[in-house]
Amino acid sequence: MEDKEIAELEFSDEIGSFTENYSSFNKIVNKLQRQYLTLKETYSNQGTELQEVNRELQLLISKNQAVTEFLDNILDSLGSGVIAINKNRKVTHLNPAAKRILGLPAKNENSHYLDIIPDTDANAGSAWRTIVENRTFENAEK
Q: How far is CA 46 from CA 39, 49, 111, 131, in A?
């Protein structure tokens, strides 16, 4: 074989190899494009779902605030004193009647319960004892 024929064969083999590599490259690019479009659609769907969940959450928050205000209004209008405390002994609600009965200033929420009503044996039916002893006290006058 002549050098020219050998060069043409080698060139022909290189073109064939290039064509195969280019075809493989195109397949990979096409696959990546399809995956990108799938991810984009998934992201878009999740964004829509998240917006819907957020709307529902905002609605629930709004309803919760309305119920809280309604209950606060009921407690505030009662003639009996009502004190609500949490397990950390912090006062979470103190209605006006309770403030008047105890002779307390207007702002006492987030106070420590025992700062308002000290724990003594005479307070056997206190709100704090109710939590500590895990029992109820009815009509315990203070």
A: 10, 5, 44, 44
